[in-house]
Amino acid sequence: MVAGLIRLLTGAQARWKGTDPVRPDGSVPQRIFFANHTSNLDAPVVWASLPTEVRRVTRPVAARDYWDAGPVRRRLANDVFRALLIERKKVTKSNNPLTAMADALDAGASLILFPEGGRSAADAAAEPGEFKAGLWHLARRRPDVELVPVFLENLNRILPKGDFLLVPLLAAVTFGEPLRVADGEDKHAFLGRARDAVANLRRRAEGG
Amino acid sequence: MPAPDRDALILAAAVGGLLAVATAVGRLLRRRVATDAGRRTIDNFNARVAAWWVMALVFGAAISFGLLGACVLFGLVSFFALREMITLTPTRLGDHHALFWAFFVIPPIQYVCVYVGWQDFWSIFVPVYCFLFLAVRSTLLGDTRCYLERTAKIQWALMICVYFVSHAPALLTLASHEAAGMVGAGTSALAVAIPPGSGWKLLVWLVVVVQMSDVLQYVWGKLLGRRKIAPTVSPSKTWEGFAGGVLSATAVGVGLSFLTPFDVRVAIGMGLTVCLMGFFGGIVMSAIKRDAGVKDYGALIAGHGGMMDRIDSLTFAAPVFYRLVRHYYP
Q1: Count of A–B CB contacts within 8 Å?
Q2: What's the ipTM?
């Protein structure tokens, strides 16, 4: 129900351009969806735009400092999105985000990840920022998981960084072709390729 | 609430009959066609007919609640159209607050004023007050890049999606208020022209004629279309489709003139005018789409595209029709 509400509010349309959400035999592959990050609505919107059977196994990875602040956000994060809250600031051995994400993958969940780490404040025209290394480490540790690039459009116009007024424009969520780490590929090359995969989806989305 | 009178029953039967025929033809053709391309065309046709059923039912249900229903319905239409139009036109972060006003403050004020019949105010609210307000609002945020372009885009969107569209439900106030006033003034000859409580028939007449014009232009264009009118703007529009559609939709308007105070001559004039305005509305909205590089405004209505794709002709026809009726049947 919350998913339907989010879709209504943001008009979010999912376009799958490279892989099907559910395999022809009805199974749902384990995945990490990684997307550009421009708005606090990003994680809920990706989650809401997934088909029900995929959504049921997918957990957004979100910043504890934002989603654990206040009872409403905490409730939403824990009970509705079943978000995996990770530490951004005081990372120690016991709360290492990578360990938490790897554990969630081992438990069978798919993840929604924003490898830029924070929201880019930029205007709509900007490319996604540099990707942090988490995606690379997860890809190496759990090579069977599909890495699906996701491009989010217009969310920074709906709820820009540093604003609280919502403008109900139409968002679009584009899912691309899954990536894998190539043989002998180093961290820098892989993260660059992953970032390009997201940026290319934007070009394809705009090209029709 | 208009009594379920004879005209309403005739209309419901006619529209229902037409759609039933279209549904039956679609089903039949779906079984006949062999090629993939043909199947796609028929599937699109069937999706459109199914959407027409929904649209006709929603429209009929809304106006059965009279002015309130019409204001709520067209208020929602404005909201969806505005959303599609602003999504297509790139705005900057500096416009965010102006957009918030454009979505959540201005349209409700416009429609509430239409509902309470505050004609003097709603007919200038957007073109005068909102125009000035939006210009000032964006300036105060200090972002001057592409200032005129950005401000003009928001003003355009409000004019088209909110101001023009709100003339459609306003047809209901036109008849009841003005005619009722006339009875009081004792000029009964004009009061007979638009009896109180029959404004909804003017709205139905306008919507049916304009939408039939769209459909018939498409049909005539498919049958006879040769010479393109504006290939760069709207590749599917042809002179043959235009002439056939406008003339046959005008004929529909004459046939439905029992809904209106128009005699045959006036019905022809009004029919030609609203069909022509509808045509212009269609190509202007297409020009905006081409500029943004998309085919449809959205995917709200299956087979048709977005809300704006369905109401583009109405946005231009409604204000002109409203003004003409108001002028000639005061």
Answers
A1: 40
A2: 0.73
Domain ranges of chain A: 2-206
pTM (predicted TM-score)? 0.83
CB A58 within 8 A of CB A113: no
Sole residue written with tokens 């020009």: B287
Question: How does pLDDT run across A84-109, given as a tens digit for each residue?
Answer: 888 877 777 777 888 889 989 999 89
Contact: B83, A157; criterion CB under 8 Å: no
Q: In this structure, are strands A84-86 and A172-175 parallel, antiparallel, or unpaired?
A: unpaired
Summarised one tens digit per residue, pLDDT across range A106-152 is 998 999 999 987 776 655 556 788 888 889 999 988 888 999 999 99
Report angle CA B250, B252, B254 to the nearest 5 degrees. 70
Task: Give B 298-327 residues with CB within 8 A of chain A.
Answer: 298-299
Ramachandran angles phi, psi of A162, nearest 5° = 80, 15
A156–B294 CB contact, under 8 Å: no
CATH topology (fold) of A2-206: Glycerol-3-phosphate (1)-acyltransferase (3.40.1130)
Contacts of A156 in chain B (CB under 8 A): 93
